[in-house]
Amino acid sequence: MLEFTTRAGRRINRRLRQETIIWLTTVDSHNTPQPRPVWFHWDGHTVLIFSERNKAKLRHVAQNPRVALNFNTDKDGDDVGVLIGDAVVLGEPPPATRIQAYLRKYKKGIRDIGMTVPQFRESFAIPILVTPKAMRG
Length: 137
What we know:
Strand order of the largest sheet: 2-1-5-6-7-4-3
CATH class: Mainly Beta
Radius of gyration: 15 Å
CATH topology: Pnp Oxidase, Chain A
Structural class: alpha+beta
Oligomer: single chain
CATH superfamily: Electron Transport, Fmn-binding Protein, Chain A
CATH architecture: Roll
Distance between the termini: 16 Å
Number of strands: 7
Low-confidence stretches: none
Order of helices and strands: HEEEEHEEHHHE
Strand content: 25-35%
Number of helices: 5
Largest sheet: 7 strands, antiparallel
């Protein structure tokens, strides 16, 4: 269980609730880190990410479930927030309430990329669930 009562823990928890982008880093078959920005939903315990089908991150998670999540820093390289955890590609959708919370968070973003919610759900249909095990900031 992560400790969110420390100064760094409170800051990371706040960012998990407020930020719209987090960087997901997986490891490819050559053990090369592969970072990518993703949309996410934090429920206080896990990070939910949706992926398009047949993307490299899905293969990477299947081969090696250890991932890192991190936020952009400020302009001086401060305000670091990194989570290390285990990811799993879910075989079934997460609870409907969780999906709705995710879609509410990204309603404007979905519109900004020229999609409707049904189009987004069809394209980004593969749920990835990350359970953070450690953090630093």
